[in-house]
Amino acid sequence: MKKNLLLASLIVSWGFSVNAQRQNNSTEYHSNTRFEQMGAALPTPNTFRSASGAPGKDYWQQKADYDIKAELDDSNQSITGIEKITYTNNAPEELRYLWLQLDQNVFSKNSNSNITKNTSINPSNGSSFNALGNLEGANDKDYGFKILSVKDIQGKDLRHSINGTMMRVDLPQALSKGMSFTLSVEWKFNIIDLKSIGGRSGYERFPKDGNVLYEIAQWFPRMAVYDDVNGWQHKQFLGQGEFTLPFGDYKVALTVPNDMVVGATGELQNSKEVLNAVQLKRWEQAKNTKNPIAIVTQEEAEAAEKGKPSGKKTWIYAAKNVRDFAFAASRKFIWDAMQVDVEGKKVWAMSLYPKEANPLWGQYSTRLVAHTLINYSKRTIPYPYPVAYSVHGSVGGMEYPMMSFNGARPEPDGTYSEGIKNFLILVVIHEVGHNFFPMIVNSDERQWSWMDEGLNSFLEGLTCLEWDRDFPATGIEPQYITDYMKLDADKQNPIMSSSDNIIPGTFGPNAYSKPATGLNILRESIMGRELFDYAFKEYARRWAFKHPTPADFFRTMEDASGVDLDWFWKGWFYGVEPADQAITNVEWLTIDSQNPGTLKAAAKADAEAKAQTLSNIRNKTDIKQTVVEADSSMRDFYNTYDKFAVTDADKKKYEQYLSTLSEEDKKLVESGKNFYVLSLKNKGGLVMPVIIRMEYEDGTFEDVRIPVEIWRLNDKEVKKTLITTKKVAKFKLDPYHEIPDIDTSDNAFPKEPEQPTRFQAYKQRGYGSGTPNPMQEAQRNKPAGIQNSGERK
Ligand SMILES: [Zn+2]
To answer: Do residues 746 and 64 make contact, with C-beta atoms less than 8 angstroms apart?
Structure first.
């Protein structure tokens, strides 16, 4: 290509005068470290965690097995329980004490969470009771754990000390590697009212029928994680940073009023004792059905609402290799179920919901559970648990092993907006999806929200689109993260921030959509689907039932794909710079063929065009006859000489030039190809691949994809020459919206006309306010006599 450059000469440039330096195709070297390896930013690999991102040969983790007996008091909304924890130390070092988590203490008046909350009341705006209830000291209900006893297996009291949401239990003697210790803890607590306090679990009272629906989690003292990264992870629970828990086996006996329906983590062990004959028959039917079958129908649930318990029942559950245990109970529950084939294994997909959730829930919830299990299994590991629930109450969305609490309630008349329907689809997929991250791939949520929320939101986006290709999966599409990424640097945290430190109001984009979008960009635009999917699946395979860290994820994604992504982790996860690419200039070049015929014809056309001045045009009529026209003796050789005619000397010179060229060079010279030299700028800082669409004059187009490494020698400005046969009418960056470019006004050359800003002309404000519910409108406008199909019975 050397010769082309020497021969290049400018024919046309779009309104830019370009000087003789144009052959210089490179821009100045601009030193940058964006493509340097992460080095010390990642922990040094060791025998516990390898440099490949896989668990090392000496990887170890602790185990905590639970045997719990608890009773729900429906008259006081409280729980009492006793648990036997068998804790096995697999760490190379001995332990002299254990740390347990007391999450309910976050709701006590004097919790760190309440005291350190930034709060204010603006008297001129007033305050809702809900907001007031959230203020420390305003709510005088006695929340938090009451620890009644902590004993060893002989029943001897163990010394213990409560520090906020953590409790240290001192061991009578050090627990060395491979040894187990069994302790029992007795406790009780008042369940929080979700309507006044809000949270991940609690109860909801339905004023119309007076019944209560329980969604219960973080309800027993749970072992903290002890690992090779942090030792004990006993960072206080402040409310935002979620949980980090060891795996173990659970046996849980839940005693509730005998008219309640229960669902929980694990498999029900005594169905013959707690279900009646009709329910057991339906349960058998549900094993072989394409659609969910009601184990408890709406009619039965409504009858139970009106009745009273005549005693108690104990529901017994067992769960293997889980990190937590949650349950739901209410006499209001409708229960539907079906078995779904997940890679050759039958799994129960089930839902529990009150009549207030219908018709939406009956139609969708259990089907969404089944869809999620199949889709996530395909992209990670086959769902290993026997059961997965979706439960409706007033928790907006929360996950536990095999259990999920999901909001999305229709209007009292049974209609719902499209937003509520989409929220149901999203939230069920999301919360059931959490079974994989962090319930199975057990990352440290207290520290890294993105490791479960980000990865899960990414799979949630893909799974929503496999449910309905028109689903607005805005959480993974680059163009929707730009509002967040264009915030000033001090208004954002890097994704690699501790959960509780994330700036209020930005938790969603920081922990959910930015990491999820980043993974989608890796999959679609940087690694490609095949390499990405393989590496992502490998990460899940390596770390299923283990405790991965960010470095294990970053390293595995590179190790299994063969793609160096250090630049991406640095920019996207450790940085807050936005992407903003621009085309600042395009030079259009063609090769000067040196053919005198072409050259002189072009020169002639140029001279003729230049002669079309206003004076010349007017003179044609104004000057009747010039001297030269009137008097032939005033003419000579030059009055007839054609300086644009090709002479023999010209031809000879051209032939000589051609004789110096090879056949290939000749072809190129005669090809008439267009050379477009694009000046590209990285204004935002974040480096991204460059995707350019060339729109040709004939209406067709071609896309050029340039890997991100184009920025490796200069991360501010680069030049790129594109060679085409057809003439380009317009160059456009990022035609498929792959780059979260915060300013797209400079993405086309020539620049596109600005879109007008529309303003509303109105007589009265307020038209069309609120969430649109066309379903309700359609039903209201129905002629009388037609049944309202959406109404609950
Ligand atoms: Zn989540």
So the answer is: no
